[in-house]
Records
---
Amino acid sequence: MKIRAYAKINLALDVVSEREDGYHELNMIMAPIGLHDLILIDPIEKGIEITTNTYRVPTDERNIMYKVADALIKKFDIQSGVRIHCYKHIPSQAGMGGGSADGAAIFRAMNSLFHLRMSYQDMCEMGKEIGADIPFCVWNRIAVVGGIGENLHFIDRSCFNCHLLIVKPKKGVSTKKCFDDLDIETAVHPDIDLMKHAIEKNDYQGVVDCLGNTLEAPSIKMVQDIQSIKDDMMNFGFDGALMSGSGSSVFGMTQDPELIDKVLPYFKKKYSFAIKTQIYYPEKRKKG
């Protein structure tokens, strides 16, 4: 069985407060994008076997796909195992939810393979204990996301015309250090409600005007290339540029796909990862 695991970007991310359990209360708007990992999964007699096309991803019990498969096998007393191969295209330490996307894909795949009859809500309830972004990645719909990532409120009528350039420098960002270095009192706090309304109204310029990420400043202190990428994008004529998640990837927004085609070779030569993509709309793919 083949399944795609779609990456995400944060159009806006606000760190609201630090919780008593050590996590941070977040309020953000997340959107799935066309960039994806491709996962092949098949039943085997027993055990969990994972292979990938990169040495950067662990293939043992540390892997989020392993954790999801193991949890499902135990919960439903599945009498066989699974063999998983993941073609990784989403870079790690990028703030694009690559691990959670893969975990969510395993939920959906095993639900189908083993006829588990889990609803999306069931998968989200199990998934949030394994990875904070798994609930969002199960649904793959633009949403206002709260808590530590488990509270989803989908944004209706969201289908604005937008082309994206995603660029990641070689160095990644430690999410833990990023949060540790954050001063919530003095940090930038984007207006999530205003961004939500802009998306609902299909107001592209409104979305661009509301781009913001509380974590961007501390991440730039660790990886200065994030600022360099943003500067390059804006100098080339992109309408907006923002770091996704805790970084270190940056996305540039434009309504001119030819602009991306023109500058893509520059970014591919200068940085470790660069790709052209768009916001992903599941209903469009089903119709197509």
---
Amino acid sequence: MEITKKRRLSDIILGLFLLSHPGPVLLHIIAVTLFALLAAWPHFAWGIIALVVAAHAAMQLSIAMLNDYCDRQLDAESKPGKPIPRGLVRPVEALFCGLLLIVVMVLLLLPLHRLALLISLCYLALGQGYNLGLKSTPLSGIVFALAMPLIPLYAFAGVGRTLPFLFWLVPVGCLALNLANSLPDIPGDATRGARTLAVALGLKGSFIACPLLIVLGALLIAVLTLTQAIPVQPLIITLALILTCLSVVAMIFFFGPAKPLWTRKVYFYLVVLTCILLAGGWLGGAIA
């Protein structure tokens, strides 16, 4: 049930802030910023980089806000602390802000390379498809696996640099991110009958799959490095793989189904940072 009490300006500001999913969106902004800087190295066109980051931020905010709009009825039952059920933001306001940010994204992308616009529209379609129902099916993992590698592809295209080796990031696919992100929601999703990939695997299976998928991605990068299928700087790749292995060890020993619930959000952020490290190391080693 939505709260109809009169809202203060501070309530609306807080609601919009929470509606933006600040934690996950900030991680996406950090990732696209790092990839854009890496793509532009050593000749930084700061205006172009700012457009690349701002357009991606607008898209991520749109996806986040429309996610809460689409989930408003389910959240009223299982997550009453969310901004729409709390009455901080009205559904129509969330819808308007989400759609407006799509327009802002497109306008910011117009001065950039057309490939950047195409990749962003593909990412947007995947994100909104997730919001409109795919998140409740096992296909949610496929959506994540297809969408996450588009971030570095977009960053490089945005600064006008497209390199063939970038497309090797696609099969590395970040299914682990989807599973880690879904861990806190597994009990609620299972109760309401949602068949997400995490629900299908179960809590224990999801905790096993996350590090396993990261290890598989690391092994692919190691094979590409050892076979010299892609010319890379071995030192950078080796350092990234070592740090990735240490992170995976931490996932196995310090997190799991028996740990407190709050650790699952920390686990998600660790998985995100590990994927950024692995992808960043691969890109850094390939363009150095």
---
Amino acid sequence: MNVKKCNKMSALTDRVVLVVGATGGIGQAVVEQLQETGAKLVLAARSSDRLQALAAQLPSSVTVQIQPCDITQPQQVSELMQAIRSEHGQLDVLINAAGAGLLKPYQKITAAELDQMLNLNLKGCFYTTQQAAELMKEQQQGHICTVVGILGKHSMAMGSAYCAAKFGVVGFSKCMAEELKRYGIRFSLFYFGGVDTPFWDAVSLKIDRQKLLRPATAARFIRAALETDPHAVPLELSLMPDSHVFF
């Protein structure tokens, strides 16, 4: 764990913010945005080395806790939440930014590939949301933000396994939102169109990545939702490059 502090005032100042998938494209951009807010950051990802490298890049004024975690393993998610409770005693914001992509004809998707999509993109997100909500219920407030992606809202050829997971994320999030609203817990779902992240590295489609959204653009969108009026609930937010517009 690393601990540093910041004095800049924001709606997020002194709030405990957990970023899951902190070393990924959007996750890291979110961390870079939030370092300016005075939030107490908890960074989670699978690689301890990458987490340490990310934390080392932050200004010394930032309070940061790093916690390696494989979110496909419920016990590790439980240990993550216990570490947050021990260090901070609360959790105000969860940002689910972990995930992996797969675009492939349905008949060529293997059982292992389907399991990977469901284990990480659906079940892993379920575990973090489920266990973060239990911490938030105790304090009668919280904000759960999930980076779903536009393929959690729209279908696409070769996206069957990926969409299966992402549509599932939307479904369980809306159900949990209904169950948890009486505890002051808000949910925001982000439907970004193409974002230039490592998602596209293993995709065989020909994509002009210069026309995709920048991770920093997506991160600013998330930060704006987190800093909105406390009585306003940004429910479902879409942002797409003009070359990939869906309605």
---
Amino acid sequence: MRETVMSGTGQAVFVPGEWRSLASCLGLSPRECGIVRAVFDGNSEKDTAQRLGLSPHTVHTYLWRIYRKLHVQSREELLVRVFAEFRSLPPPTPNFVRSPPRNAPATAANARTAGTARCSLNR
């Protein structure tokens, strides 16, 4: 069961590790991810600017660039796009599963699972 860690940072929807995976798969910078999280919180551009210490114009510019990068045209489409990407992420690995030792010989199975998370909607 997912527990809300903190409201006001998009964490009511995704936990920090999920945000990192989504940012990586979507090609978002940390600042862009912060803007997307604010959209998930329902914040206005003015509120987002105040929270992040930016001007409203800068937030508007970031949001416009995020729309272009993700090929969306509205906040609603942005939410759908991020949720669609989240659904394509592989399930999290339980904490009790161990990675192969660092000095273990490379195998085809290890090579397939190494690297970044699978991103179905990358361009």
